[in-house]
Design brief:
This protein is mainly beta. It contains 2 helices and 36 strands. The chain starts with 5 loop residues before the first strand and ends with a strand.
């Protein structure tokens, strides 16, 4: 016998796009959570959600099918509260009997009722001490990893830092059953607040492990707004593991400007997808509704403190490992004008993928251009953007001053493999001299002695085969060949 779902209309939702249905939606999910029943939206309904300081907590399967939701952010009581929170019935637990951790530790001396995602924090140690226009004093040392209920660390989410002083160790239980959210067409009427770093979190916030979002659409309406505060992701993934976002259509946000911490004008990061303190994330068959090469919009995807992110058959304007990811896979995809930005460690594998942008891969200068691990680029195409020709076409780019403490030792990938890369540079200007594969790195120090205060670890193994250029101008490894003199270098 099939289980009958609860409908929003049963709890007073009108669905005419005018009446505020938020309270009725909240009541429906509360009842479903208590009874363990699924929720279903009426297919032809248009649900208007105003700016009340409320959240609908979702703990059961939900089918939004072809219903439309209008989220009006023009008059919001609390920008920090999500509209929908996908939540577990299992409450987080503070682990009190562990005072320290070491990198690659295999087991914690603890026992839990469930396999769990662990969030470890040491607020006395700073990492990701940002340099540049958005400079800051760093972020408390944070790591996320999965352990079994008897304490064994999943080696695919291995611990990446030593923790001599744990100030917080939280276990977020992992639900054994998968929760599925399907369908729904969402329109956000964007806020018209002052353009400053006060992020709006009026979103779908996923805080439950083993969750699937399937077939959702999100669009933005700016109306007459000439300014807007940034958004922290319409799909926001936090403190969870095993999340799949599939067959979804999402939107990049307009770029607005503010004054950064360095006193200079900066474009504000504003996202439709943001992952933080999360592991094992799959984005499959997803695409961006607006043009992925439109540089008046911000890159759609960002992440902080993540492990094992996979893009498979995705068309987005950006992949960004911001404050560090461990392991990334981008396959069968197309990445737009902001390209692939990396900070972190482990293996980054990019295959059967097209990239449009100023760089194919950019190791973020503001976090030390560090990737402590390996990069593989195989069977890919790179179409340089206009700014690439202004500054020089480079496949894997990095810049490093050697004078700033980022809170860690910075690395260029120890092993770099590029096999079968097509560079579409046939529209280059007349003064173009061809592509470089690796960076000169120490830009601006050619005319004076340079000594690193904080040394940078250079590659040990570089393997390049089958690179072709549409311009027929030969590629060069780097304008600073001496940097790579100690690497094992193979090319064909």
């Amino acid at each position: 016998m099939s289980i009958k779902p609860l409908y929003y209309s049963q709890f007073g939702a009108v669905g005419n796009g005018i009446a505020d249905d938020f309270a009725a939606i909240i009541r429906a999910h509360a009842a479903a959570n208590e009874a363990g029943l699924p929720v279903c939206a009426e297919p032809a309904a248009v649900y208007y959600i105003g700016g009340s300081d409320m959240t609908a907590e979702v703990q059961t399967d939900t089918d939004w099918n072809t219903a439309r939701f209008i989220i009006d952010d023009t008059n919001v009581e609390n920008r920090n509260h999500p509209v929908f929170k996908i939540a577990s019935k299992l409450a987080p637990i503070q682990i009190k009997d562990t005072n320290s951790l070491v990198k690659n530790q295999e087991k914690l001396d603890t026992a839990l009722l469930y396999d769990s995602l662990i969030v470890a924090i040491d607020n006395t140690t700073k990492r990701y001490i940002r340099e540049g226009a958005n400079q800051d004093s760093g972020t408390e040392q944070t790591d996320v990893f999965v352990i079994s209920k008897d304490g064994y660390v999943d080696p695919n989410t291995a611990i990446i830092w030593d923790f001599n002083n744990i100030t917080s160790l939280t276990a977020h239980p992992i639900d054994s059953q998968t929760l599925v959210i399907t369908g729904g067409h969402f329109t956000t009427i964007a806020n018209g607040e002052v353009a400053e770093y006060k992020y709006f979190e009026r979103n779908i916030c996923i805080q439950r492990s083993n969750t699937v979002i399937d077939g959702l659409t999100h669009v933005l309406e700016y109306g007459k707004q000439t300014q807007s505060a940034p958004y922290g992701g319409f799909i926001s993934i936090r403190n969870c593991a095993g999340i799949t976002i599939q067959s979804c259509k999402l939107s990049a946000h307009k770029i607005f400007y503010t004054t950064g911490a360095g006193g200079e004008p900066v474009s504000m990061g504003t996202y439709d997808i943001l992952a933080e303190k999360a592991v094992n994330l799959l984005f499959k068959n997803c695409r961006q509704l607006n043009d992925i090469t439109d540089d008046t919009t911000w890159g759609i995807f960002g992440s902080n403190f993540t492990k094992n992110i996979t893009f498979d058959t995705v068309s987005f304007s950006r992949f960004d490992a911001h404050k560090g990811t461990t392991n990334a896979v981008i396959i069968n995809s197309e990445i737009g004008h902001m390209g692939i930005l990396l900070i972190g460690s482990g293996l980054c594998r990019i295959e059967n993928t097209k990239v449009h942008g100023n760089r194919f891969v950019n190791l973020r200068e503001d976090y030390g251009s560090t990737w402590d691990g390996e990069i593989i680029i195989r069977n890919c195409e790179y179409t340089p953007g206009k700014k690439a020709y202004e500054h020089g076409v480079v496949v894997i780019d990095a810049h490093y001053t050697g004078l700033h403490d980022f809170g860690y030792t910075c690395h260029m990938p120890g092993k770099i493999t590029i096999d079968n890369l097509i560079i579409n540079d046939d529209k280059a200007p007349d003064n173009y001299h061809g592509p470089r594969i690796l960076p000169s790195l120490y830009v601006g120090y050619d005319d004076r002695p340079f000594v690193e205060k904080y040394p940078y670890v250079l590659p040990k193994d570089i393997r390049i085969t089958n690179i072709s250029t549409k311009s027929n101008i030969p590629w060069v490894l780097s304008d600073s060949m001496d940097l790579y003199r100690d690497a094992l270098f193979f090319y064909d």
